[in-house]
Amino acid sequence: MDVVKAVLEKHQKELDKYKPITVEKHLECRIDVGTLLITDPNDLEDRQIAKNKEEYLAELTRDNTQLLVNAIWELPTERVDESIVAKLPEPTTVLPRLRKPPGVRPMTKWEKFAKEKGITKKKKDKKTYDDVLDKWVPTYGFKHAEAEKDKEWVLEVPQNADPNTDMFQKKMDLRNEKVAKNEIQRMKNIVRAKKVEMPRSGYLGPEAASSNQLLTAVTVAKASTASVGKFQNKLPKEKEARGLGVKELIPGGKRKASHISAQPEREANLELIKSVLNKKPKLNVDKAISLQKQDERLEREAEAGNKPAKKKGKGSRKAVGKKPKGHQGQRAPGKKGQAGRKRR
Amino acid sequence: MKRLTDERTKILFEKLAKYIGPNVQQLIDRPDGTYCFREHRDRIYYVSERILKLSECFGYKQLVCVGTCFGKFSKTNKLKFHITALYYLAPYAQYKIWVKPSYEQQFLYGNHIPKSGLGRITENAGQYQGVIVFSMSDLALGFGVLARSTTECKTADPLTTVCFHQSDIGEYIRAEDSLF
Prior knowledge:
By secondary structure, chain A is mainly alpha-helical. Chain A has helices spanning about 1-15, 45-50, 55-75, 110-115, 145-150, 165-195, 210-225, 265-275, 285-305; strands spanning about 30, 35-40, 75-80, 85, 125-130, 135-140.
C-alpha cells in the first residue's frame, strides 16, 4: 500500500506542477479558431493589477490561451507523420482593410460638364441602316471600317481646294488628330484626378502650346536674366503675359506693390504722360488739309478786317465807273432813231 | 486698391490723351494735393491721396469704391470710360460737339448723334477723335468718338452718324448698379 500511496502522491505532485485545463470565466470568451483568436470580454481586476500587474496578466493570458487550445482540441484531428493535425475552420472575424478604401472615381471634365448640363448618354443601336449601301452596317467595331470604305470609295475635292490634294489622306489626318486630342484630354483628366502639379510654363512645342502658354513662356524667359529682364529689348507691340497664376512665374515681380508712394509715382506718371504725348502722330492728310484751309480762311478774314470793304459779294471783280444809263446822251441825228437805252 | 501696372497706366493715359490731349498732366499735377490712379476689381479710380490713406483700413473684399471711378478694364485689357469720369474730362476737353436741344433726349437714351442732331462742332477734329458732348447751353452730356471728321461733317447727309455714342449722363439711371 505504501508503494501505491507513494506513487499516487508523486503523481499528485506532478499534477500540481501544471495548472488544470479547465478555466472558469464570468462571461464566455469569444473564440475564432480560424484565425486562432480569442477575445476576452471580462473586466480586468483592478486590485490584482495594483498588487502585481505582470503576474496577473501572465496568468490571464495563460488561461485564455488554454481556452483557445481546448477549442482547437475539439476540432477533428488526424495523424500525419507522427504529429496530430487539426484543420482550422474558416475564420469568422472580419479584419479591417490594410489600405483606405478607394473613393468615388473623380469625374472627367466631360462627365462633370454633362452632369451640370443634364446631358445623358444616348444609347446607339449596334447596327444602323445605311441608305447608300442599302444594308445594315455596324455602328462601330468589326466591319465598320470596311463598310465605311465601301461607302466612301470616292471623295469630292472642294472647289476652293488644291485639285491635287489627297482627300483620303486628309480624312485620315483629321481622324488621327482627333485621336491625339482625345489622348491629351485623357492625360489631362488623369492629372486632374491625381491632383499632380503640372508645370504651367516652359516650352511645350509649337503643336501643343497655346498662344497664352507661349506668351507666358516668352515673358518668363525674358525676365530670367541677372537683372530680371530690365535691360531686355522690347518689340514695338509686345504684350506681357497676364492671367491667373502667371505673375508668380515671372521672376522679380513683387506680389503686391505698396499702396502709397509719395513722390516717385507722380514723377513716373508725368514721365509716362510725356512719352505718351510725344508720340509721333500718324500723318493725317484730312486733318492737315482742314488745318490748312482754316489757316487760309483766318488769313482772309484778317485781311478783310484790315480794310473794311463796303461792298458785299465778290471782291475780286472790280466795278469800274457807273453803269451806263439810257436817255442821257446826245442823239446822233444821222442814225435811225432808237428810243431808250440800247438793249442787248 | 492696387497700383496700376506700367502697361495699364500707359493704356489709361493713352485713352485720356484721346479725349483731353496734353491736359492729362493737369490730372496728375494738381495744386490742391496729390491725386493718383488706383485699380480695384479691374476698375480705375481717381483718388486724392488723403482719401486713399483713409481707405487703407478696409480690406479688399469690404471695399466697394473709393474716389471717382474713371472706367473699367475689360478682360482683353481694354479700357472703357464710365460716365463718372465726365466731371474730370469735360473742363479739359479739347474737341467738343454740341447737340441740338431736339436731339438731347435721343442722345441721353444712348443713341449715336446723326448730322441732323449736330448743333456745333470744334474745328479740325479728325475722324475717331474722342470728343465731349455738350448741350447747346454748354452742359456736358457725355462723350463719344467722331465718326466723321469736321470737314466731312459739312458735306454729310442729315442721317449719317457723326458721333458714336460712348457714354452719357443717362447712364446714371440706366447703369446705376455697374457704374461705380
